[in-house]
Write a structure and sequence with these properties.
By secondary structure, the protein is of the alpha+beta class. The protein has eleven helices and four strands; from the N terminus they run βαβαββααααααααα. A four-stranded mixed β-sheet has the order 2-1-3-4, covered by helices on one side. The structure holds glutathione. The site of glutathione (GSH) has 16 residues, from α1, α2 and α4.
């Protein structure tokens, strides 16, 4: 069965799906796309939605990390990424949904806000990617792409600052799920993969890594998603980080 995964370097939900495919032993070809331009490419390829991750597999076209997780579990049930027990499955699905809405989205906003302040680290996320243009050139000409991502994601200062302030509570929640056994099993489940990818992107920011790495969440993230390239220097205003220090 031929599989082709469309990604943007550094995209955390795309990294979650890469890990799902690896864990399930499904061979695939990765297609690296530039942010924003990705939308036109996926539209031209007739995907119904135009974000990454998007996957073409066995003649089907699916977009979205959670949708892809369910499809992959049907196509290749072993190892499962959702528990078979309905109650446990419901808990994993709740955590997975939270990971998308309350972790991945805020971390994406913080990332683009930080990248607008200093884009020198952008190329580090594209390690091993084939974008069709030299990485240095892509970074030097990225200002319009960054501006578009700020707009698309609502990553202006006020929401990004609120996202930073909400992080300690989000980390408490993840640590509690680990303590309860909803997260942290081996092999990882769909919620581990969704949440670990969001944490890995957060941990690629020098401003946020110290808050996360010493906690159970910080231990889970590299275990569930070991290969996540990229680093952004500390650039967020000191007053944004005060709630983190207080926590
Ligand atoms: N909630 C979606 C996230 C989709 C999403 O926003 N992907 C971003 C990359 S992380 C994207 O495609 N951005 C391209 C763009 O906005 O132009 C999922 O989990 O798949």
């Amino acid at each position: 069965m031929e599989a082709r995964l469309y990604v943007i370097p550094g995209s955390h939900p795309a990294m979650a799906v890469r890990r799902m495919l690896e864990l399930k032993g499904i061979p695939y070809k990765r297609v690296d796309l530039m942010p924003v331009i990705s939308r036109g490419v996926l539209r031209a390829l007739r995907f119904q939605s135009h974000t990454v991750p998007s996957l073409r597999i066995g003649g089907r076209k699916v977009t979205g990390s959670r949708e892809i997780a369910r499809l992959l579990d049907r196509i290749q049930p072993d190892p499962p990424i959702f528990p078979s027990d309905p109650e446990q499955r419901a808990r994993v699905e709740d955590a997975e949904r939270w990971g998308e809405e309350s972790l991945a989205d805020p971390v994406r906003r913080i990332f683009w806000n930080a990248t607008r302040r200093d884009r020198s680290g952008m190329g580090t996320y594209a390690e091993g990617a084939k974008l069709g243009v030299p990485i240095g050139l892509a970074v030097r000409t990225a200002a319009p792409i960054i501006a578009a991502e700020i707009r698309i994601n609502g990553a202006q200062d006020d929401p990004a600052r609120a996202d930073v302030a909400a992080l300690p509570a989000a980390l408490d929640r993840i640590d509690a799920w680990i303590a309860e056994g909803v997260l942290g099993g081996d092999p990882p489940n769909a919620a581990d993969l969704q949440i670990a990818a969001g944490l890995r992107l957060a941990m690629s920011l020098d401003d946020l890594r110290p808050l996360i790495e010493s906690r159970p969440a910080g231990e889970l993230a590299p275990r569930a998603n070991p290969e996540f390239a990229g680093r952004t220097a500390a650039v967020l205003p000191a007053e944004w980080l005060e709630p983190l220090r207080a926590a």
